Amino acid sequence: MASVAGNRFKQDERRRNADHVSFLKHRRFRWLWIALMLCIVTGLGYAMIDQEPRPNGGSWYGYTLGTIGLLLIVWLSLLGVRKRKITTGQWSLKAWTSAHVYLGLALIVVGTLHTGFQIGWNVHTLAYFLMLLVIISGIYGVIAYATLPSTLSSNRKEMTRAEMLDALTALDRQLESAAQPLGREQTDLVIAALEQDVFYGGAWGRLTGTYPGCKTNRALARISESGSEAEERVHALLVKRADQLGQIRRHLRIRALLEVWLFIHIPATIALLAALLAHVVSVFYYW
Amino acid sequence: MSDLYEVAIIGSGPAGMSAAGQAAKRGLSHVLLEKTDHLSDTIYKYQKGKHVMATPSNLQLRAGGYEEGAGGGMEFDEGKREFILDTWDRQVAEMGVNVEYNAEVVEVSGEKGDFTLKTKAGATFRAKTIILGIGTQGNPNKLRCPGADHPMITSQLDDPADFHDTHITVVGTGDAGIENALGLSEEALGNTVTILNRGTDFAKAKQRNADLLQAAHDDGKLQIRFKTSPAEVRDGEMVLETETGQETIPCNTIIARIGSQPPRKFIEAMGVEFTSEDRSAFPILSPVFESTKPGIFVIGALAGYPLIKHCMNQGYDVVEYLATGESPKPADEPLLEEVFAGLPGNKPVDHWLEVYQKNVDIFKGLSTLQMRELMLDSTCTAFAPGEVIFRRNEQGSSLFAIAQGSVAVEVDPNDPSITVPIGQGSIFGEVGLISGRRRGSTIRAAEETVVVELSRKAALKLIGSSPEANETVKRISIERQILQMFGSGLTPDDIAPLVASAQTEEVRAGQVVIQEGDDDKDLFILRFGSMLVEKAIGDRQIFLSYLPAGTFFGEMAVIDGSKRTATVKASVKSEVIRLPGDGFLELLDKKPQLRERALEVMADRRRTTDFIESQKDSVDNALELYTETAKFLSEQGIGEATDALLIDEKLCIGCDNCERACADAHEGLSRLDREAGKSFAHLHVPTSCRHCEHPHCMADCPPNAIQRGPDGEVSINAETCIGCGNCKSNCPYGVIRMDPVPPKKPSLLSWLFFGSGPGPGEASYSWRKSHGDPDLAKKAIKCDMCAGIDGGPACVRACPTGAAIRVAPDKFLTFAKITEDVED
Q1: ipTM exceeding cut-off 0.90 for this assembly
Q2: CA-to-CA distance for B778 and B585, rounded, in angstroms?
Q3: Cross-chain Cβ contact B675/A161 below 8 Å
Q4: Between B219, B651, B797, which is nearest A91 by CB?
Q5: pLDDT tens-digit map of B421-462
Q6: 3-class DSSP state for residue B148?
Q7: How close, in Å, is residue A142 to chain B by CA atoms?
Q8: Which of B181, B321, B522, B812 falls between 20 and 30 A from B87, CA-CA?
């Protein structure tokens, strides 16, 4: 091996030495400071520059703010591409997320100043409110990302999703044989519990964690823990099944809470881009 | 009395069969003795449809019509197991090879010219010469109970799916037995599986397998019977000896996975000597593969060549030698020409072989055959004066030897002009070889220099087979390690008495080397592995620090004569050099600058201890968290890692973008499983390669396809991997998977806009299967730390929240890193 000096050692050492920080704290809040600066500068500009006849998106300062806002929105929406396109190079998705969060928040200021506080029933205002919708859903996302992961991890107890389902299947098999000696009515309760889809409950159940029609709980309530030996055994297994289901449902709930906002954030972003296009085209057309 | 054959060939694997084929072609009277009822049992037992590779691809296959006159011989090319076996069966019949099946040779007597071979069935054969090609697998051990020869007993399980709705008993709870039992207990098969364990634990199995087995038992998928052994085997049932007496269970198949008897004893009984007592040693052989017992030739895996092509060529060569009295030019000649091609003077292979063997100390005890083989696995390079051979901090575990010239070692990182010479015949790079850590100094050629670089595998094989080489490497490495550790200003003469009294000791994982409170006074140098330092604070053992290989410890008690102030124990299997404290003190008295250096280190360590002790009253139990986390990470193998992926579950949103990025950075297969693996205090160790200092996966790779790269990554060469799966079963962390290269996916944009293809990340198994080439062989794949990818590991780059980090244990197992709070 002839030696080459150009290996990755220094870069790798920097990575291994690097502090371990979240996207919010990335590089000592670099993007927070940049976003704050942007807000302050645009705010001061708005206050100090004499816009004639009044502050408006159509003044030169308004166009400046609009251009900054437009570029920001387009760039922010590219996060979705960045996340999926694993190209080479010194980028980090964490840095992108950090910038996305803080610059996105700064858009509230930049966008609002761009409107000159002129609100009406038109495509311009539509774009503005779509932007606010995207940002508000994003704020929820940041809060969810900052608070939910540790509960997700505690609930998981080192089990993977597949293992949780496997554990349930194993319990079901035991339940099936344990329920054989039970009477008709009780057997039906157990069968109903076993036959119910693990993912029953729909979106609402998943988000709220309420499953009023849960057949396992129903069977649990009706099979006494102090009956015959078979009943006791089935009851104990049902308790385990309810626990296992509980873990799966909590997992689903936290995952859903972590993801639900994207169902607003992403479509609203696409609508916003469309509205922006209409906004820009119409502004220039009627110039 | 039977006929006297010219040659008897024992074992019909690729080596023996090729020898027999050549003997038939040459019209040599011969007999091929095979213990089973089919040819080439090892390959016969491969999984059905397994793709067999033909490596090394640059080595020519002799028998395939390569030599004049005797052309058109045994063929072999990569392909499915069935195809290869069919070819061989056909060719053996066409050539008129004289095969005796069911002829297991149990005894060999006589001398060259008239050997007598007895088989188990009682037949005898006589032959002038013997070719041994019986491989290294040996015979599987049998159950020790009546009925041990019952046909329902097998020692092999090709495909668990061959068994369904039946009663199966697995005997033996090593990894093989456990894996078989788990495979057979798959629910869909409907088998009733019982696994017998003579004792109460699974000491022979990997922890992961033991856990899976216990879980399967708890789930009712199979039954483990502890303290139970077979008492008798009968038709359709098995009698078990349990703690409470005998018990009979229904049983239709018994899988006995209770190890095998290596063939060494049988071979030694013939008068064949081995190179050393080492378990991995091979028979001593002449350049024509003749053993120390005249007339007995050893070829194939037993001679140290696990690859099919080598085996077949050797069979051919030995028979050619017997038939003509001359051996053909070795098949590896063109390969050796390539190895030596870069050396000056355009000299022939024999010239360089002689130069290396004569000049390099550690090669002196080798035979020509060993020399050739060693050089095949090595790189020979000439360097101009001043040219860098390797640099400080470069990753490298190979060993260099100087055949001509000399080199200069830059011992001071800040001043390259301070150098220490190493002369012709000596070695360098041994610290990297032993510790598995980065190079300690930059080395340049001091004049026109010719060196050989032995891969770690070749170097270890050399050390294992030549006691002289072993001694030399050991002495030099201890000497250099001491010199390197205590800095410049010392000469080999200064430390000679210390080196002479040094002892190397192996330490098990978890074994205590120094016990707090004891008053022994030795100094230790950690050669390889890593150590954990702990101290009793209050009533708890508190973790102080992690010591990587190449550091010394135990100096405090030596220097200030106090009792041991902390406990030092191995976190993984390690080796230490024990230096007597008196000798070290004498050296300190003579060398004031060394004393200064030792005091500096000591003061530094005291500071760490004091700081950690000062944390004991902190409100949030940081010390406890620190200790427990360090212990957890060490249990997860981080102690032997060089670069491991960790996930902070306080930040992980479970998006699996790390897995997708991994797949997209590597031909579409992810090398990490984020969700699997253990967690402690929200720190998660996913199933992903740790790039161990001494990679377990590298230990047994027949084509030597696993290497450590320049950035420390341990990676598998997909070109040369033969898909044998050894690495997968050797990895204690389960991070290697076997899969064929998946088909190419449509681009991201066409997925985004038109929904074509499976999208980012690893495609589902069914998509890969339906779109891929069904004939592609499975190969081993694992994390390569994104070697060659600008920007570094994709898993870390693609984490949106900063949860994924890759760390080295010596940087991460510190108080500051472990207790840092990422959120506030």
Answers
A1: yes
A2: 58
A3: yes
A4: B797
A5: 999 999 999 988 888 888 888 999 999 999 999 988 888 888
A6: coil
A7: 10
A8: B321
